[in-house]
Amino acid sequence: MNTFEFDDLKSPIIQAPMAGGVNTPELASAVANFGGVGSFGFAYTTPENIEKSLLSTKKLTSGHINANFFVFKDIKLPNKNIQNTCIEALTSLPFNEGVEFTVPSFPFFPSLNDQLGPIWESRPSILTFHLGVPDLCIIEKAKSLGIKVGITATSEAEAIIVANAGADFIVAQGIEAGGHRGVFNLESEDHQLTLENLLLKLRRTVSLPLVAAGGLMDGADIRRVMSLGASAAQLGTAFLCCPEAGTSAVHKHYLLNSHDRKTEITQAFSGRPARGIDNTFIHLMKNKPTLPFPAQNSLTAHLRKTAQDTSSGEFVSHWAGQNFKKIRPLPCLQVLQLLKTELERP
Ligand SMILES: Cc1cc2nc3c(=O)[nH]c(=O)nc-3n(C[C@H](O)[C@H](O)[C@H](O)COP(=O)(O)O)c2cc1C
């Protein structure tokens, strides 16, 4: 296996893990072959499909691949009254014809141990975790196999927990980032640090390498975070409109044509704060009750699928970072070449 070291990267770019069908072998291998890191967000993926994706990718690249997982926590559903209020909130939406809302049942998320089976076999160079720290034996096992482990942190307190858990690096996620915010505990106060402030704070607090994530769209952005002490930059939104990405047509349409809209952080789709392009669903669900993550994700699944199938982008999540208007809808290699030229510009 190809042991991963930040210093050996030809390009300090990590294509972000993006669960929900965006990551593909074609996208990940294009970035890995360029000398960066290609990623897969396997949050809800079955072990069989994880194995398939990694095998297909191995045929396209011998470069660095990152397999990423959510750290789900056991949840208890609230009492029947609250469940019914959550269903009523969704049923009251204008777009609900033919949509059934049923309270999701256990298990709400896949078993991480089962999902990791193909990882121990295939051994990608990097394993990363989002939304918390996994069991320490998982980190130890990865390291014993030569797999580097990274964990997202959004604050100094989380970064210290990550360092004490024995991770190899920290993915510092600023408030600008698209998709789910990596906060560990929804009960604690979220200081919503910008990427720049987070990097400055973490550089003083921990000695682990930092990967900067959140709102980075061009080479000048990458240069700026590297000058603040980041070892690499993780870009998600910048790759969403590449033809190699599995982003849905309606998501791409919103990303390229919503120049009159902003992004919002909402819990309404999944039960956890995540940043996406503002739409009717986010607007109508403001201050409405939601089930705990990820039960709310299951509860809204049918609605999102129906909306997706009928191209009603107003009721689907369009995860995107704050700077989505700077997306370049180009083949991945061209995006990477532009990033390189801009990064090297004096
Ligand atoms: C569509 C989408 C899905 C995402 N899914 C994941 C995920 O599965 N795991 C993860 O660690 N981060 C996920 N993220 C967050 C990214 O890792 C990263 O923090 C973010 O993309 C950086 O901000 P940017 O989108 O402005 O580049 C996702 C982001 C987006 C846009």
Mean pLDDT: 96
Percent helix range? 25-40%
Number of strands: 11
CATH homologous superfamily of the largest domain - what is it? Answer: Aldolase class I
Which cofactor or ligand species appear?
Answer: flavin mononucleotide
Total domain modules: 2
User: Under the CATH scheme, which class of the largest domain?
Assistant: Alpha Beta
pLDDT < 50 stretches: none
Number of helices: 13
| Overall CATH architecture of the largest domain | Alpha-Beta Barrel
- Termini gap: 36 Å
Written overview of the protein:
The protein has 346 residues and is α/β, with parallel strands linked by helices. It has helices spanning 25-34, 47-58, 80-91, 112-122, 136-144, 156-164, 195-205, 219-227, 249-257, 280-284, 295-299, 301-309, 332-344, and strands at residues 13-15, 37-41, 64-70, 126-130, 148-153, 169-173, 179-180, 210-213, 232-235, 263-266, 274-277. The strands form two sheets. Strands 1-9-8-6-5-4-3-2 form an eight-stranded parallel beta sheet. The chain is globular. The model has no long low-confidence stretch (mean pLDDT 96). Bound molecules: flavin mononucleotide (FMN). Flavin mononucleotide is lined by residues 16-19, 22, 41, 43, 68, 130, 152, 173, 176-180, 213-216, 234-238, 319-321.
